[in-house]
Amino acid sequence: MVWKKQSVGIDMAKLTFVACVCKRAECSHEELILSEAKTFTNDKKGFNQLLKWVGKQIDKKVSVNYAMEATGIYYEELAYHLHNLGKRVSVLLPNKVSHFIKSLNIKSKTDDIDAGAISLMSCERILHEWVPPLPLFKKLRSLTRMYQSLQGDKVQTVNRLKQMNCGFGPLKEVVQMHEKSIKNIEKDLAKLLKLMKGTLKSDKDIWVKVENLLTIPGVGFITVALTLGETLGFVMIKNQRQLVSYCGFDVIKRESGTSIKGRTKISKKGNSRLRATMYMPSMTAIRYNPKMKEVYERINIGKSVKSIGLVAVQRRLLVLMYSLWKKNESYVEDYGNEIKSDIHEEEEPSSSSTRRVETASCEEKVDGALKHPSTQNEHLHNHLSEVLLHQ
In this structure, are strands 16-25 and 3-12 parallel, antiparallel, or unpaired? Predict the structure, then answer.
């Protein structure tokens, strides 16, 4: 039998992982054949045993895709091992695998079933190839997450100390321990901040982009570092919608007929660290950034919950950072006004006859009426379109 596609589905765990091979036949009905699932240890010995076992199950003339679920950080060792050997690897989000299994009407859940479903999903669909992040951003993510963790520890310790001092006769030794813990945390935070700056400054091109992001009102170095660490330098982000969905800022609705009218809200199904990072910059932006302040006030008109406008500002700031990073540009406060002025300058050279044609065309009816075609202003229209596209 001739095989069209082959894939290996892997269900990861801390100590072991389960693998299953799926082969898709090249025939009219494209039959799918699953192998028996097998368990391996999550170490170098298990990785080598996996490759030997897969070699016996597949047709070596057809390429193989290794698909696995992103279970915490347990998948990383195997993913890097396979990638370094030149294998094609795909890393799937757990919710996508879960929804695919539900679409198959499978009610049970075991490691063998999950491995088979992942291999089947890889055979049926075109999955994106996993690309490991740059070592710089991987190091930055470890530093920023440690920074966030210590910030949380500091807040908890300070709150406990305040609570203790509000009581009657706090124990002196315990108070000193809390104060010492706060000082140690502050020293570690300063050390982490220095390491984050050194990591980003080690690459001149990346540091230039960081300085561009720092020109945005309300955005500081810690915000930039945390954002780049969580997105790994926007490497896997292809567009703004993907970024918004990754952070959980995408808007969802729940409506059905006339009985169900759910409240429109953000999904929050994304990186919660990144959403928390954008909170304080948005608070600063609505005070010192006129454009963000205008957005905040416009969205909150007639609304009792002011956080709706604040979330919109957070989303805009994040998208703005992504755009400036991709374009390698700094923030320009009058960017929209510059576009309008450029368009106005392009319109001035047009002749009086062209302006007459444009005035006449504005008076035409659009729906259900005759439209008089005009060719005199066609060149101007195309030229203005080019100006808008190049902004």
Answer: antiparallel
